[in-house]
């Protein structure tokens, strides 16, 4: 046996030193060292269980736990030397444990495998991280609510096909995003239910002949119960894909927001201004202030989708149970998590610093005949069918357009010529405020509704 192989846990069986290429593709320590807290916590729980069940000696267990705690501190203080030749976080910790407590370290890996170890660590890490995403989504929602409260009566054009459609409240628009991020939070809540089963003790794939207590480790590690099938336990990466899907869909929402911010902030549209601290200048054009922050939110979204697509592809061809392909899952999740967290935090700052250009919004809302539907509704309330009213209103729009007028600039006689049943009160139909106030249906844009919703959201967040 070569000196190098003697150092390997499987050196007795694999006799030649590992090729440099294999070492470089196989070693995941640069990535999975981020699991060190979870790896050590899970090892401590496993060790306590082995000792409680009298599978290993109390004395060894004490030494193992002492060593593991020491290693955790070493890593936290940046005093731990990670070694590529020890592949991953699990073996790096185990190797160091041998250095600290000697041969007692050899008892820790009783009744477990790296296959159940890695899934356990990873589930713990993703649980913790999903909680953090959830917390940050709450902050984002709060920033929308604050902005909506401060601008409750600001009127803007609502769009369909990016053409002016109907007047809406800017606050109502902001609350649309609250709904999206609330759904993301709900998805995280369901995800945390789904992920809450402990794979530790499934060992390589078959379970184990030792009298282990998987309920004990489940409780210690904060899982609801042990997983029910050892083969599925080590094969399952649904939780990885589910997390990446949630991250992707949340990113869709962030990216739509970013896109909206970019358009609204453009010189052509100019509906909002942004805080200078989230804008960049140009190296050549002295006048520029660019919304790079929003563009990067949009840009990182593609990357997050890529990680989801990557894991779906990795998993689709794998028979049961463990394959090394799955090692790639960590990099995907860490990368998506980092990008998502940054995006949520950046979006929160963007929303906090966003100022509606109120005069421009109001002026824009008047363009595009946005109260044409209100006029049709007025006629319906006088007894006309909606289809007929729709035609009458379109005729009125044609007249306004031909004369280069907005609907509220038309005089009573012109309107009367289009439809003789109208009365003087028709003129207020073209008032934007009246239009917005009239949308009192549940979930509509009236200030009454918007206030009610803000209160509801605030209560929910408490
Ligand atoms: N580093 C590995 C991973 O992340 C741990 C599991 C290794 N198991 C094995 N049978 N080689 O997937």
Q: Could you list some keywords that capture this structure?
A:
3 domains; 462 residues; binds arginine; two-stranded antiparallel ribbon; Ribonucleotide Reductase Protein R1, domain 1; Fumarase C, Chain A, domain 2; Fumarase C, Chain B, domain 1; 19 helices; mainly alpha
Written description of the protein model:
This protein is mainly alpha-helical. A two-stranded antiparallel ribbon has the order 1-2. A hairpin with a 2-residue loop joins strand 1 and strand 2. The chain is elongated, with a radius of gyration of 31 Å. It starts with a helix and ends with a helix. The model has no long low-confidence stretch (mean pLDDT 97). Arginine (ARG) binds next to helix 7. The site of arginine has 10 residues, from helix 7.
